[in-house]
Amino acid sequence: MAKPKLAIYWAASCGGCDIAILDIEGKILEVADFFDLVFWPCAMDFKYDDVRKMQDKEITLTLFNGAIRSDENYEIAKLLREKSVVLCAFGSCASEGCIPGLANFTDKQTIMDYVYKTSPSLEPGNDVVPQTNVKVPEGTLHIPNLWNTVRTLPQVVDVDYIIPGCPPQSNQIAAVIDAVVDILKNGKPLPPKGTVLGASDKCCCDECKRQRNVKKIKKFIRPFEIVTDPEICLMEQGMVCLGPATRSGCGAKCVAAGVPCRGCYGLPSNIRDQGASMASALASVIDSIDEAEVERILDTVADPLGTFYRFSLPSSMLRRVQQ
Amino acid sequence: MSFEPRIVGFLCNWCSYTGADLAGTARMKYAPNVMTVRVMCTGRVDPGFVLDSFRAGADGVLVCGCHFGDCHYVEGNHKCMRRIAITKRILKGMGIQPERLRLEWVSASEGARFQEVVNSFTEEIRGLGPIRLKEWAFVPEQVEAAAAAHGE
Fold first, then answer.
1. ipTM for the predicted complex
2. Do A145 and B147 touch (CB under 8 A)?
3. pLDDT tens for residues B33-89?
């Protein structure tokens, strides 16, 4: 029997998801043994044309990481959708926008101006800005156009499953691979379309081992401002911890190390906007009924929008900032 | 055609909904622009409800509850006040005027006050104009036309 084919692609991402796949250690050999790796630009040399030449639905499983923010990202997303039986949004960027998605707080022009004209690391007077088409003696060079708004994979193509996390934890990836092998080898039924794999349904607090008592907060602080108590809930200590608005599945590793949850596993299934949900949780623990004092306490939250929507802005209710 | 604001009003069951009811039974006339949603307490109004209203096309959101000290659940309106404060910050950060969200306390006996709140808020929203969320939906045709223009 021919081996099932596996493709792994990165769009707008940092490469951390690919590293997380390699992080499953010895299991990667099993993956290479069981699957025929047909496309993985981060790790092996393949060309887009190799994929274009394939039959439709020839790839059994595609793990797609990275957000969609350029014509190239979109083109390959469509291509891999055509060629794959199962397309999986892998990691936070593909499933909800993640760090590249923070670009939705600004716009393309501002980004281009900063990076190529006003950034302090540029030579003064630089005015070289990349163009989508440039004529050189050998012909025309083309680079893909950057979008004004970052999109998630499920917003632009039909997606079968979602694996959240920035990056997805290696033990969860290994579990998903085991399940996939089980399905392909033993004919186990596929989970229903749209299932979130490699995570659970409750919020991060459910996995957190810290003690939770009563939260009454007069001032929000950042992790470097105090020596954290190792036993007590970080929010009780005044930190903005996204645990209450974040899906569990990561094993609550950050909070165990004394760093508040940043929300990378995305929103649990019963809420629709991670930032709004976090705002709601935060508002209920502020210890004041005086409007002016509430405003003063809220002033102590550093970069509230960037914190609440750090991983989910392109999939949030409003999608992007309105000019 | 003149602009008619669409406003979503979250009214608490115990005070403001009854206050609105009083305005109705007393046959007070007020702007018909508010579509009311009855909630058991303003403490139930999650910031997500407000953002979802704006996403779904509301031009303004009005939240009305019991005066401080009158809450049927003792402190639901305190939580609401704090949630509205933080929601206004979210709206401002997302480029939507925070004035489009208003919190008012209306008791069960204040039908006239409900009338005045609805009228003044409707006029304020009329002055601010409609909301049009930009680039909310992904439109493949637009993206593909732009890519073609860039010579894909």
1. 0.92
2. yes
3. 999 999 999 999 999 999 999 999 999 999 999 999 999 999 999 999 999 999 999
User: Which domain range does residue B65 map to?
Assistant: 7-149
Does the beta-carbon distance from A321 to B93 stay under 8 Å?
Answer: yes
Shortest CA gap A88–chain B (Å): 20
From its phi and psi, is residue B122 left (phi > 0), alpha (psi between -120 and 50) or beta? alpha
Chain B closest CA to A181's CA: distance in Å? 34
- Tell me whether residue B1 is in a domain: no
Written as one letter, the residue type at A20 is A
CATH tag for A5-99+148-186 (out of 3.40.50.700, 3.40.50.300, 3.40.1080.10, 3.40.50.80)? 3.40.50.700
Report yes or no: A274 and A263 within 8 Å, Cβ to Cβ: yes
Q: Which of B67, B97, B135, B144 to mutate against chain A (most A CBs within 10 Å)?
A: B135
Counting the structural domains of chain B, the total is 1
CB contact under 8 A, A318 and B55: yes
Nearest to B94 among A144, A277, A318 (CB): A318
- pTM of the prediction? 0.93
Residue B54: which residues within 8 A CB-CB, separation 6 or more? A317, A318, B61, B91, B96, B100, B131, B133
The answer to whether the Cβ–Cβ distance between A318 and B147 falls below 8 Å is: no
Query: Of A80, A88, A15, A93, whose CA–CA distance to A48 is shortest?
Result: A80
- The answer to whether the Cβ–Cβ distance between B86 and A282 falls below 8 Å is yes
Mean pLDDT of B122-151: 90
